[in-house]
Amino acid sequence: MELEESRQKELLAAYLCVKASVAEDLTNSEEVKRALQYAGLSPTPAFLAQHWQEDAADTMTFERFCSLAEQLPDISIDDIEALFMKVFGTADGKVGEDDFKRLVGGDEPERELSDADLNYILHEANVVTQDTVDCNKLCKVILHTVNEMKQLSVQKLEERSHYHRINSKTFTRKKREKFANQEVNSAEGHSTLDLEGWSVADLKGCFYLDKGSVLAHQYSMEMSCQGPTVVRMKPKSYTKQDAGRGPVDTLAYIFRESPEGSRSYVGHTDQKDGDGSYFWQDTLKEGRYVVMPYTSGCRLRERPHEPEGTIELVERQAKVRLTPEFKLVLEEIFDQVDLDSDGRLCREEFNLYNWRTSGEEVQDDEWSVVQANFDVEDGQLTLEGFLALHQLEAEDNGGDSEDLWVSLDAMGYNRAGRQDQAAPFGLSVYSQVCQPSVQVSGLKSGGLTLDRAVVRSIMENAEPVKIKNMIDLIKYEYVGDHWASIVVQNKAHSKVTVRVDCSQSLNVVTNRPNLEWSVEVAGKSAIIAHQLLPLKMGEDWTVVCDTAGSTKATQEEE
């Protein structure tokens, strides 16, 4: 069940009143009860006993907490009045103070509310007149207190987010220094993370532009024990890449995966190291995780047109042969699809390549043909075999290169032999206490799960500002050292169009076609209006963003 964003924020705020982060699970029924109460709910002992066993070793994740909260009804004035009528049995809502204390407090020695507690509550609520409690008035006070509790939780969340934002550099650095006294100096030009002695798992991957969306290799990660962990993403450079676009921002979002398959956002690689990589460092619990790569689209974007020059792929002389230029491109591709960097393509790696270039899976008989007719080592295809396979394809087509161009286009290469529609990267996972296990889980889009995590990460680290003359529109503007993001949230039920103008910014590039752009924001949702990067690396850059909302669509709406 999807939660409304405002309700999701209330539950997040309530959870963070009990735990420091959503990555930490609730560990006992008292924590569960407190978190539910901060969310303005009233779990009964029977409800808690039904969903929590104190002798069980299980814990409760944030996602499970949200699911549990949805099973409890919101408290209404009618519910409270009906309860009071059932307990006190009076039609006029009046009951003697002594009877009230006896019925509410009870006679048990370990009761939750003492006489002093009840006296304090009644005095603060101002509901006692001539030794008589006005239950109708008390009902309204209780409901008001419930709403105040929810508002206080959200306020604490916003204050906490503001604190993190003001201290974004020092706060994140302190988390790293829990494990090692290290700082990152981006001027060094190389990594300054001290990971000597840590166990590491490395894999490669790539972003591919695909009909307006971005596909990327995704990863499943197993941690056999709890401990300090670093997840690191670094763009990889190749000779045939398009040098004019600059380094592609290469991030990773980490999700914890439950046994049921639900995924909860843990964090993302929000720190930039001196070698150009982005990393995240914190303690990960034992369990299964999913790593989803992400790039903003500021530099990896659809080419407006093909370049003028075109390389030849095939030489037609006495026999059909691949050109030296094409062989260099194929060598790059082989290295990119050799995800584990062992110099050979296993069936899974070759299958991902074949699926990307043809849209088809490699069948058992087809893989047997590859192993029988091309150079392999330990049952895996070598570079020599990979080149020979494409040589055979060129021969079968009589020297016609159009099918070869289809493969190159799918791998992100233009007709000049430059890779401008794809961006290779390397993923490294380090653990100080155990050997991480990382495997490729597929080549796909991050979908709504990734989109929501990106939006959430921006909103949690940005200052909310109401958009002028639009009571239900809020802008979240995050500006860091290396990138900036603008999110627009629509709290109303109807969709609106918002013009987000960053044209007065200096030395920036956006993921949108223009710095002045309009986005349509559906009701009760939030959307990224702009992602911004420095246009010229190493030079000063400034973000200036003006917004204006309208209920009418514009020509540029998304």
Your description of this structure?
One of its GO terms (molecular function) is calcium ion binding. This is EF-hand calcium-binding domain-containing protein 7. Its main location: membrane. Helix 5 (77-88) packs across helix 8. This protein has 558 residues and is α+β, with helices and mostly antiparallel strands. 33% of the residues lie in helices and 26% in strands. The strands form 6 sheets. Strands 4, 5, 6, 7, 8, 9, 10, 11, 16 and 17 form a 10-stranded antiparallel β-sheet that branches. Strands 18-19-20-24-22 form a 5-stranded antiparallel β-sheet. A 3-stranded antiparallel β-sheet has the order 1-3-2. The chain folds into 5 domains: 5-74, Recoverin, domain 1 (Orthogonal Bundle); 77-143, Recoverin, domain 1 (Orthogonal Bundle), CATH 1.10.238; 199-302 and 422-452, Jelly Rolls (Sandwich); 314-410, Orthogonal Bundle (Recoverin, domain 1), CATH 1.10.238; 462-550, Immunoglobulin-like. It has helices at 5-16, 29-38, 45-51, 62-70, 77-88, 97-105, 115-125, 135-166, 168-177, 324-337, 347-358, 364-373, 383-396, 402-410, 447-459, and strands spanning 94-96, 128-129, 132-134, 199-210, 213-223, 227-235, 251-257, 263-268, 271-272, 278-284, 287-294, 314-316, 320-322, 376-377, 380-381, 422-431, 437-444, 463-466, 473-479, 484-490, 496-501, 508-510, 516-521, 525-534, 546-550.
